[in-house]
Amino acid sequence: MDISLLNSKKHTQVFMLALLMLLCACDTNLDYLVTGYKQKIIVEGFVESGKYPRVYLTLNVPLSKPIDSTNILDHVIRYAKVTVSDGSNTEILTSRWDDSHFPPYVYTATSLKAVEGRSYTLKVEYGGFTMNSSTSLPQSPEIVSIQSEMVDFTDTLRLLSVTLNIAEGSKTAYRIFTRKSSDSRYIETPFLYNNTLNDTGLKTYKILPSPTKTDASYAQGKYFVVGETVDVKVCAIDSVSNDFFKELTLFNNTAENILLNEVKPLKSNISSPGFGIWYGVGVKTLRYVVN
Question: Measured between alpha carbons, how far is 189 from 159 in angstroms, rounded to an integer?
Fold first, then answer.
């Protein structure tokens, strides 16, 4: 999601399913002709350092329909006007199918590449409504080192960790992805590091990827084979994005309880009648041979 954060088909599908499930339990604002059916425009967009912005748009699925891949595809928005600006340059994004993602329809730029330290505004126009958001692109993290640790039950597998140098006052959280030589995609460690935004200086975090059954490295789980080459990608996000993804992680872990208890919705930074997240990602990638 190259890994770009949401360039992982699995990750994007989990993101969309979580938002759709949550919106089925929420009071929404955008009325349509079908009696009893209210919709929101779900926005997932990001700018990653050195790359073009990417935006995914869907409508939430009616309560009467199952929340599955087929129905999500039926609710993909293909004809919106999506504009991104960095204050000096503005571009209307072009849309296209992209089978490497889910949903497989993306709005992306062709000339406006993301630069760390800049702010980016998003405007989505669809169905007579206009939704706005803004975000900043954090500085990419400083990766000091990657370490391997022996495990008790075998000589051929290792656990990995990464040490970052976190500047005081940076107020950034981190998401960590890895791609082993056998993998076709980057796989996320399902934790949000420094989500209290209090860590500074040298901090070491465990790397614990969670591959699915379709990944070549599924049998290895969180472990890494001695001698294999691994790309480690550390992604810095700002405090607003941190709050959103922290609550999304909680929702994914306790979806049934949330739907039953109607807890507060995620901290969306998309103006009404939109819902979702527009965020910047400062990225640093390091290649490591497991020893």
Answer: 13
Q: Which residues neighbour 263 within 8 Å (Cβ) at sequence distance 6 or greater?
A: none
Q: Is 288 exposed, middle or buried (0-12, 13-18, 19+ CB in 10 A)?
A: buried
pTM value?
A: 0.79
DSSP symbol at 128 = T
What is the SS3 assignment for 254? coil
Q: Of 102, 123, 108, 119, which is closest to residue 58 (Cα–Cα)?
A: 102
36-76 pLDDT tens trace: 446 678 899 999 999 999 999 988 765 556 555 666 677 78
By CB atoms closer than 10 A (0-12, 13-18, 19+), residue 112 is: buried
Q: What share of the chain has pLDDT > 70, as a percent?
A: 76
257-270 pLDDT, tens digit each:
333 333 445 678 99
- Whether residue 60 contacts residue 287, with contact meaning beta carbons closer than 8 Å, is answered with no
DSSP 184-223: SS-EE-S--BTTTS---EEEEEEE-----TTSTTGGGTT-
Nearest to 241 by CA among 185, 143, 171, 169: 171
